[in-house]
């Protein structure tokens, strides 16, 4: 039997236009969404979320919480309605969006050219970078070039591993020296533990994971820099509901201007994020 991972299901859904135009749950078609007037008449903003990406969205004490949840609460208040945040498997989110099971997808979805041609991406709500985390008492590492000759650790098979390999080539070209060694671990918490007990000098991990570690273990780690290309994360509207996307973007602009967005980023990530308002969509995007 084929195993459907989050990635393989989305790839299959995108490849099959029939999967998008003929929803798997037709009885739910047009149950939600469409226009802002629909939402206000209903008295609730309904969104689909996979709450498994701390601190963007995750479950705590049985409730969906996180940065995205707080932003959604502001949006619901802006509309004068209540928020209903449905926690669903990621593989059901985009098909559910196309059948109007909810008003939009509010989970961390990476912007790719293939997805952007089929779905209406909002402005980026976040960015994930591959950051270099070190111990707070480590004073020799102040920038990315300072990790030449150091032992670096990351999660085996993760998206960070090829970033580490690629950066070592750049490091050798610029300094003539690569890492002292690369250590691979089963999970990111193992990487943090190895850093804390000085098994490694530098931990390479996604910025959201590092933010969680630093919040749970304050005054133990600090960020010394980042390497590789950042990954932009956005929310997704039905391509037929461009009014919904405009509402998301206008709300983000308003919260950015009044400082509420930066305050929430400080709360959940420890620092404001630098997310673009323009030129973030690939060519051919909706």
From TrEMBL:
User: Is Signal included in the keywords of this UniProt record?
Assistant: yes
Keywords, A to Z, come to:
Signal
The keyword Signal appears for this protein:
yes
Question: Which InterPro entries does the record match to this protein?
Answer: Solute-binding_3/MltF_N, TAT_signal
Q: Gene3D superfamilies, alphabetically?
A: Periplasmic binding protein-like II
- Pfam families from the UniProt entry: SBP_bac_3
All copies of the Solute-binding protein family 3/N-terminal domain together span: 44-272
Q: Which residues form the signal peptide?
A: 1-31
Entry protein name: Amino acid ABC transporter substrate-binding protein
Q: Which organism is it from?
A: Pandoraea faecigallinarum
């Amino acid at each position: 039997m084929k195993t459907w991972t989050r990635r393989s299901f989305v790839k299959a859904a995108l490849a099959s236009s029939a999967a998008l135009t003929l929803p798997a749950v037709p009885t739910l078609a047009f149950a939600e969404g469409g226009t802002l007037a629909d939402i206000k008449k209903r008295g609730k903003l309904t969104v689909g979320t996979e709450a498994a990406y701390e601190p963007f969205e995750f479950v705590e004490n049985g409730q969906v919480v996180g940065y995205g949840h707080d932003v959604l609460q502001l949006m619901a208040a802006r509309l004068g309605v209540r928020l209903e945040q449905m926690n669903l498997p990621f593989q059901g989110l985009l098909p559910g969006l196309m059948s109007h099971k909810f008003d939009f997808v509010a989970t961390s979805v990476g912007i790719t050219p293939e997805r952007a041609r089929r779905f209406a991406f909002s402005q980026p709500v976040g960015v994930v970078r591959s950051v270099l985390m070190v111990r707070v008492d480590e004073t020799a590492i102040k920038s990315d070039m300072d990790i030449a000759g150091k032992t670096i650790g990351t999660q085996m098979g993760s998206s960070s591993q090829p970033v580490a390999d690629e950066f070592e080539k750049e490091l050798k070209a610029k300094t003539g020296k690569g890492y002292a060694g690369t250590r691979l671990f089963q999970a990111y918490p193992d990487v943090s533990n190895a850093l804390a007990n000085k098994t490694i000098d530098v931990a390479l991990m996604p910025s959201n994971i590092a933010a969680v570690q630093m919040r749970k273990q304050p005054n133990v780690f600090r960020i010394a820099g980042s390497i590789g290309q950042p990954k932009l994360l956005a929310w997704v509207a039905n391509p037929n509901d461009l009014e919904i996307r405009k509402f998301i973007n206008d709300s983000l602009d308003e919260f950015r201007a009044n400082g509420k967005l930066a305050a929430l980023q400080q709360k959940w990530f420890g620092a404001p994020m630098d997310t673009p308002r323009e030129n973030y969509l690939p060519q051919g995007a909706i």
